Amino acid sequence: MPIRRLPPEAVNRIAAGEVVERPAAATKELMENALDAGAKRIEITIERGGLARLCVEDDGCGIAPDELPLAVERHATSKLVADDAGGVDLLNIATLGFRGEALPSIGAVARLSIVSRAKGMAEAWAIDVEGGELFSARPAPWSGAASGTRVDVRDLFYATPARLKFMKSERAEAMAITDAVKRLAMARPDVAFLLTIEDRVVFRVSAEADPENEGRRRRLSAILGADFAPNSLALDQTRGNATLTGFAGLPTLARGTREHQHLFVNGRPVKDKLILGAVRGAYQDLLARDRHPIVALFLDMPAEEVDQNVHPAKTEVRFRDAAMIRGLIVGALSHALAGAGHRASTSVAQTAISAFRPESQAPLRAWQTAESNLHDGDFVMPSARVERSAGQNGALSSPVYGGGDRAAIGGGASRAPSEDDQFFPLGAARAQVHETYIVAQTEDGIVIVDQHAAHERLVYERMKALISNGGVPRQALLIPEVVELDPSECEALIARAEELSELGLVIEPFGQGALIVRETPALLGQVDAKGLLKDLADDIAELGQAHALKEQLEEVCSSMACRGSVRAGRRLSGEEMNALLRQMEATPFSGQCNHGRPTYVELKLADIEKLFGRR
């Protein structure tokens, strides 16, 4: 078939399909234009999921009357400046929108009307585009701010009926628009946003006076929920030319999907696999596999260090030094989470309190049965029954505890429980319930500890520290295994041979396109050498570091810690209970076990009093 040029109308509609996939994409483009224009207030109005009407009004600098026709002309933009030689630096982008595609693309598939009053102008001007047909600019009434722009889009995709068939329900499209508005609102706490759907205000936030510190936290809490502020950790770390700020939720404040992970690069909301992978790596031994943390990460770096023109909708980016960015994110998150110590989310206590709400009054017989169970070995009270036994060299003992290896928890130390213990963060042990849960009294409430989950985390962190300080124990293979790989993969692995050796994996080149494995990490037991090396090669190719081996080692440590920790059903002495509490207070990440479950629940006295009608 002969090669021929497409008509301009077809070209415009094809380009529109790349930029304006759905109403939410059009909303995002128009809001970004408003932010680039210096807007401090943006109002969005939609009808029928944005398909019937989509209006975005701002108080930015506006558009001059003679520039209105250019604003809807393809490849015309105010956001890229040509140099003296006529070239344009596409890598040095300091604005949100820069392709010059949004307005002409929307005008090619909808009925577009733009009314704008430029700063310093006495009146506003308007221009219309319908299905790609441009009308002349004209004076128009304006009742908004001193300057600004109102973009009114009606009958979106009327010029491309086939696209309408692929739209989701009006409710789904409205939810997508709401999500787009909220993401930009998180990125710009200094700007007020108002979203109205079918004459009903569904989202409203005011501009924050302190957008960099507490103002950002307040804006995030308004969007992510009231639980986020008290259960999040501030981030502020720099590596090279990149700075990471934002907030990360505690591991026990987790969700079932990644929808609550918000990532911003130079103020632009993105969905980047590298950043998502780094978040997963930082939380990987703190959460169950089906749970995901809540984070809002803001990465700022020189524009030339990141390619923001990878995707027409600008939702993906590419970093010049991907390994450095991943290290920055993992390091910042790990440091913040370690600094949280044993802290757990307040939502755990709220869930526990709600579980105590009785649905109906229980008969008196049930309380009598529970009372009788107190004498059946399910409930012990250490602080009231600890005595000194002259026959055990002054060590604490009690007839109700039975035997047990105190060194498993207390490291061999023995100390009498003291009334001052209740002033520690996790308080003083007062009872053990069903030989599984420790009840401790704090200064202003009680703490209930899952002894197995808590000790599992303590053992795991101890094993990680031993590996980090003394290196990973290795086992030599009786018959070294030869693994054939792609030559480029072999070269990448050999270049990292010293790093892999520190992790317990010893490899050597073995001719063209092959490696020989001589030693493997002892913790891994029998190893699928080829599968492991393939995973490592993929890691190195993508990120420049071997993460698969580290993660496998940590999984083995987690499994060993689970099997080697104090089991549920074991009766503990008062010293052991308090020693466990004190070690939890001194151990990072002890607020959750290796599988992501909370290790303790704290109930404030005020909450308990509410249960009994005292407040």
Q: Which secondary structure elements does this structure contain, and how are they paired or packed?
A:
Blueprint: H1 8-19, H2 23-36, E1 41-47, E2 53-58, H3 68-71, H4 102-109, E3 111-117, E4 124-130, E5 133-134, E6 138-140, E7 148-154, H5 161-164, H6 170-187, E8 192-197, E9 200-205, H7 214-224, E10 232-239, E11 242-249, E12 254-255, E13 261-265, E14 268-270, H8 273-283, E15 292-293, E16 295-300, E17 306-307, E18 318-319, H9 322-339, H10 346-355, H11 364-373, E19 379-380, H12 382-385, E20 387-388, E21 396-397, H13 407-410, E22 428-433, E23 437-442, E24 445-450, H14 451-470, E25 474-484, H15 487-495, H16 497-502, E26 506-509, E27 514-521, H17 529-543, H18 547-564, H19 574-586, E28 600-604, H20 605-611
Parallel strand pairs: 1-8, 13-16
Antiparallel strand pairs: 1-2, 2-7, 3-4, 3-7, 4-5, 4-6, 8-9, 10-11, 11-16, 12-15, 13-14, 17-18, 19-22, 20-21, 22-23, 23-24, 24-28, 25-27, 26-27
Helix pairs in contact: 1-4, 2-6, 8-9, 14-18, 14-19, 15-17
